[in-house]
Structure formats: structure tokens, C-alpha cells
Amino acid sequence: MRRLEIPESVAMKITGHKTREVFDRYDIVSPTDIKAAQQRVSRHRQQIAEAAKEKGGSGVSDKVGIKSGEKQDDAAQAHPVQ
Prior knowledge:
4 helices; 82 residues; 56% helix; mainly alpha
């Protein structure tokens, strides 16, 4: 239900989970979920960098520790989400 963007409080009522601990226990994260999240972050960083270039700024790469000349996708692979 999280993937469908249903609020967690609503999903817990529907599934009958009374505590966050039990609800979280059954929220299984797959490698596909992680890859999709990394792609969303990469797209978001790219949008910020493009907007900053239009305004004459340096973009997000300096703020998130991406080295000069390093692609954002390379940085995501070097520091994968666990």
C-alpha cells in the first residue's frame, strides 16, 4: 500500500496492524524498490542542478558530496542505499 501512496495510518487500519513495529516488519524492501528510489533521487538531483545552472548556481552536487567531474549515477553506485 505504501507503493500506492496510501497513507500509512490508513494502510494500518485496513490491514489491522495495531503497532508501527508490526506494520514495518511486513514492509519488505526489494532490490527493485531500492533501484527505483536511487533513480528518483538521481532525477531529483539532476533537476536541482539544472535549475541552479539556469540561475547561475553550482547545483546540488557540492552539497551532497559528489566530486567534481563525477556523474551523479556513479556517486549513487559508490554509496548505495543499504
